[in-house]
Design brief:
Elements: H1 2-12, E1 23-29, E2 32-37, E3 47-51, E4 56-59, H2 65-78, E5 83-87, H3 93-96, H4 99-104, E6 108-112, H5 113-118, H6 122-127, H7 133-140, E7 147-149, E8 153-157, E9 160-167, E10 174-179, E11 184-192, H8 204-216, E12 224-229, H9 235-257, H10 262-276, H11 284-299
Parallel strand pairs: 4-5, 5-6, 6-7, 11-12
Antiparallel strand pairs: 1-2, 2-3, 3-4, 8-9, 9-10, 10-11
Helix pairs in contact: 8-9, 9-10, 9-11, 10-11
The chain binds zinc ion.
């Protein structure tokens, strides 16, 4: 009996590595890793990191502090170099929710200047009627970025160059992170691979222009794209995502032109969109929201986050 209790105590106190990781770590270049959200979406989004000469730069921090702590553990397992920077691709809580774990690990938080004004406020809107008092409190306590920009920025990890680029379309405060020597681009939510994107803050018009440019950039055919959601991607996935946005816009436009609105518009668009993209995950809830936001954009009534003055 005593022995059994001892075993239980050991099991309860088991170190973190005994628990399965909520993400799958994939090496996408020399010293460049993507951490892809697991099948039950416990991490909430994808993140990544770059090991340079004198330190590590992390891209995004998942939705949960626990998942971000597990990421810090994996980084420490791979390298003794310090975690120096965290770049948030945008303010959404599924990418910033674990920021505190990276700050605790020593990272300076870099973000688009609009993230500072939105991360503790607009994230509440993101959850709509699914917000709870606990989640609201957690959002209102999220770390604010230390270093903000509305221009491209080069971060040097010793001799290793990381280019932080401003991009338009998803929120109005988005960054994509390029590692030129490894031909890797972390797109944040500018790219979703085979998963219906969240358009709540987006402009599909700007978004499609950005993705067309990302798919046509020099070296695109040999670039690895790490999306905000979905598995590691290539140039054809960027084109496929842009085609998805184009189909959504065309179908919503057709439905509007034949006088359909609201529920009827969603019922017209969703089955056609799913039929055109059979290998995509498109929940009914996501499809209805996409149609609603696309309808608003075409009607000129779409509300997007408003930049806050420093
Ligand atoms: Zn997002």
């Amino acid at each position: 009996m005593k022995h059994l209790l001892g075993m239980v105590a050991t099991w309860i106190a088991a170190p973190a590595f005994a628990a399965p990781l909520p993400f799958v770590l994939k090496q996408v270049g020399p010293g460049v890793y993507a951490a892809i959200d697991g099948p039950d979406h416990k991490a909430g989004s994808n993140v990544g990191f770059v090991i340079g000469d004198d330190g590590v730069l992390v891209i995004d921090a998942f939705f949960n502090v626990d998942a971000a702590r597990a990421l810090v553990g994996e980084i420490h397992r791979l390298t003794p170099k310090p975690i120096r920077f965290l770049v948030n691709t945008h303010y959404h809580a599924d990418h910033t929710g674990g920021d505190q774990a990276l700050r605790d690990a020593g990272a300076v938080i870099i973000a688009h200047k609009n993230v500072r004004g939105w991360v503790r406020t607009n994230n509440v809107n993101l959850f709509g009627d699914r917000i709870t008092p606990e989640l609201k409190a957690r959002i209102q306590a999220l770390p604010l970025p230390d270093l903000t920009t509305d221009k491209d920025l080069t971060v040097w990890l010793g001799a290793r160059k990381v280019v932080v680029q401003t991009v338009l379309g998803h929120t109005g405060g988005d960054l994509a992170i390029a590692v030129p020597d490894a031909k890797v681009l972390f797109t944040g939510d500018m790219l979703w691979r085979k998963i219906a994107p969240n358009l709540i803050d987006g402009s599909v018009k700007e978004w499609m222009a950005t993705d067309a440019a990302l798919a046509a950039m020099p070296g695109a055919a040999h670039t690895t794209y790490v999306p905000g959601h979905g598995d590691v991607a290539d140039q054809s996935d960027v084109k496929d995502f842009n085609a998805y946005l184009g189909d959504l816009r065309r179908l919503v436009s057709e439905g509007r032109n034949s006088g359909l609105r609201d529920e009827a518009l969603a019922q017209f668009v969703a089955p056609k969109l799913k039929a055109l993209h059979p290998d995509w995950t498109i929940s009914d809830r996501a499809a209805a929201a996409e149609v609603r936001y696309m309808d608003q954009e075409l009607a000129g009534t779409k509300r997007r986050p408003v930049p806050v003055r420093d």
